[in-house]
Design a protein that fits this description.
Blueprint lengths: L12 E3 L23 E13 L8 E6 L8 E4 L3 E8 L10 E3 L24 E8 L5 E6 L10 E7 L34 E3 L2 E3 L1 E10 L4 H9 L11 E4 L7 H4 L8 E6 L4 E8 L5 E6 L4 E6 L2 E8 L2 E3 L4 E7 L6 E10 L11 E6 L14 E2 L42 E5 L1 E5 L5 E5 L11 H7 L7 H8 L13 E3 L4 E14 L2 E4 L2 E5 L5 E7 L4 H4 L13 E4 L14 E10 L4 E7 L2 H5 L3 E6 L5 H12 L1
């Protein structure tokens, strides 16, 4: 087994200060918006740089967006149109891609940013355009590369506001909104309202906590290990970063004059802040808490929920939360924030996960750039604790208790039109490489990419035979021709996703939880259970009384049985209901990057003949 030390107790300073910190990263290149036209033009330049975000003794080459890490936030208002230009520099050396995680891409499947499925990777020296509207969406999202392990550094927040008036106030020194490098300078607007709003919620300001992980090795070496014959098990990160920073081995490195310390979240006392928490990690779920503070959850994956009080969050790769934080502690003090990895094999700790929140009166500071505040130690030394991260996790955590603020319009007790059962299994192949097989199938590699293949067909259609055989319980509904799961708009389909045993050595294994992400559509977790799903027994089971719309949900691991471990044996399951609605070819995968690269993914093909880009191509061909 290959191991590295865990990231643990990642301190953040929570300092109460009137820093309009969420304002975007300042660069000499600014992008602002035209409110009337509802078009936002954004340029993302991918370049090769180096990083040492945890005060280690070595830097590593990484790809960066506009030379920054984390990448500059993208912000928009509901229903805006975005015209994004991705420029992969000649010097980057690697092909790349950009996916907008959680953005449904309604009518714009070609802009989803998934190599091998909706596009080819963008070679060095090339430019790729992604135009789409954020139709009906608000909330907290992010964007990241969907190529290899590049999502370790090519990633940044993506925030959508309900109205233009709900944007946080811009820095008085900026006067423009900085999203990315662009030559389009268009007058921006400023929110002068004393409060910000979304749905029923009101708050004074907002901050981002962007969770990522970091390895003391290159992305290429991680990729070679994961896909090569020497693979044993995915190793844990050396550090967990919040807003791009932490301190590795703080007893040695914290007082190094070249070490800037931990991220600091500056807030003003006596206020209510919306913390937008983004799980952009590639491996672990993160537990998160703040000393002497509690949270009110108000959003999950872009869906507003009724207020739910908690002392901590469990944030898996790809998941996002918004919580309300009352800054009701003593001013001029700072408080430790702790994050710890969950669902992990290893128990060693690097004890480097501290961050700090600071309560500072507004007159004491200037307004900083986003992701910039940092500090070495909290003035209040209390380190908050999290629930045991090595104990078996409760099925569903708090999610079964959450309720949407929207009225329930679906009957979740009703049976689906059909059920698709997925049983992934980790398998060592004849060449000693390790891949994930879903229902016994090796991951497919389309060449050229799938959407391009469909474009070349005279009249691409959905495989209705595969759908019918699945309805009759004769197959799992897979289309062996397109290598997809065909779905028809208007169907109600339940997906049962198993977690299965992974073998460490003969007779010894572990059951891992997996965060599953749907592109192009939301899903609703409606039930979960231990070991293997049995449709006759479990089809009417509902463990989520009030399902909420999600785009990333965990298939939780179940308890181990007292018997020799068998690789691929089911140890837990989660059922996700999908109301099929968005024509396209959409990725459906585990958001642990190494697992996805090893094949823990599939593609949902929705109403092929209704995919807008294919319809347009068909019209052009018929008119020639």
């Amino acid at each position: 087994m290959s191991t590295t030390t865990l990231c643990k107790h990642h301190h953040i300073l929570l300092r109460l200060v009137s820093l309009l910190w969420f304002l975007l990263i300042a660069t000499s290149n600014a992008l602002t918006v035209v409110q009337a036209s509802r078009i936002r033009k954004i340029e993302l330049d991918i370049t090769l740089g180096t990083m040492n975000p945890d005060c280690y003794n070595q830097t590593y080459p990484v790809l960066l967006v506009n030379g920054q890490h984390p990448a500059p936030p993208i912000r928009a208002t509901k229903d805006d149109e975005l015209q994004i230009t991705v420029r992969n520099s000649v010097g980057s050396k690697y092909s790349t891609s950009i996916h907008y995680h959680g953005i449904l891409q309604i009518g714009t499947n070609e802009a989803d940013g998934m190599p091998n499925v909706t596009q080819a990777s963008i070679p060095p020296g090339s430019v790729y355009h992604q135009n789409f509207r954020v139709v009906g969406q608000t909330g907290t999202y992010y964007y990241h590369s969907h190529t290899d392990y590049q999502d370790s550094s090519v990633h940044g927040p993506f925030i959508i506001y309900e109205t233009d008036q709900d944007w946080p106030t811009l820095s008085e020194d900026e006067g423009v909104e900085v999203i990315a490098m662009t030559t389009n300078i268009i007058p921006s607007y400023r929110n002068n309202n004393p409060k910000l709003h979304e749905g029923p919620y009101e708050y004074d300001d907002e901050r981002i906590l962007f969770f990522t992980d970091w390895w003391h090795q290159t992305d290429q070496s991680r990729l070679d290990f994961a896909l090569g014959p020497e693979f044993t098990v995915l190793s844990e990160a050396d550090s967990c970063l919040v807003n791009g920073r932490t301190v590795y081995n703080p007893s040695k490195n914290l007082d190094n004059p070249n070490c800037e310390g931990y991220s600091a979240i500056d807030v003003e006392p006596g206020k209510v802040y919306r913390l937008r928490v983004i799980g952009a990690t590639t491996m672990p779920a993160m537990g998160f808490t703040i000393a002497r503070h509690s949270f009110t959850i108000i959003e999950v994956d872009g869906e507003l929920v009724q207020p739910f009080q908690t002392k901590f969050l469990e944030v898996s790769p790809g998941q996002r939360f918004s919580v309300l934080l009352k800054t009701d502690q003593v001013p001029n003090e700072s408080y430790n924030i702790a994050i710890e990895p969950y669902f992990t094999l290893f128990e060693e700790s690097n004890d480097n996960n501290a961050q700090i929140t600071s309560h500072i009166p507004k007159d004491n500071v200037n307004k900083p750039e986003i992701f910039e505040p940092h500090a070495r130690r909290a003035t209040i030394p209390d380190m908050p604790t999290l629930p045991d991260t090595t104990a078996p996790q409760k099925q569903g955590w708090i999610f079964p208790k959450l309720k949407s603020v929207k009225p329930i319009t679906h009957d979740f007790r009703a049976p689906p039109d059909r059920t698709i059962i997925l049983t992934p299994a980790e398998k060592q192949l004849e060449d000693n490489t390790t891949r994930w097989l879903i229902n016994g199938r090796i991951p497919h590699d389309w060449n050229p990419y799938l959407l391009s293949i469909l474009e070349t067909m005279d009249h691409p259609t959905l495989n209705e035979t595969a759908i019918q055989l699945n309805k009759e319980g004769l197959t799992d509904g897979f289309d062996e021709g397109h290598k997809t799961y065909p779905l028809r708009v208007g169907e109600v389909v339940d997906f049962v996703i198993h977690s299965t045993l992974q073998i460490v050595k003969p007779g010894q294994g572990f059951c891992a939880s997996h965060p599953w992400h749907t592109h192009g559509m939301v899903h609703y977790p409606i039930a979960d259970g231990y070991w293997q799903y049995d449709d006759a027994r479990d089809k009417n089971l509902r463990t989520y009384p009030n399902p909420i719309a999600r785009d990333t949900s965990i298939s939780y691991a179940g308890p181990s049985k007292n018997e020799p471990a068998v690789g691929g044996a089911p140890c837990g399951w989660t059922k996700l209901r999908v109301f099929v609605s968005n024509p396209g070819v959409w990725g459906f995968h585990c958001h642990i990057t190494g697992h996805m690269l090893q094949g823990l993914m599939t593609v949902l093909e929705v109403s092929t003949e209704q995919i807008p880009v294919l319809q347009h191509r068909q019209v052009v061909q018929e008119n020639q």
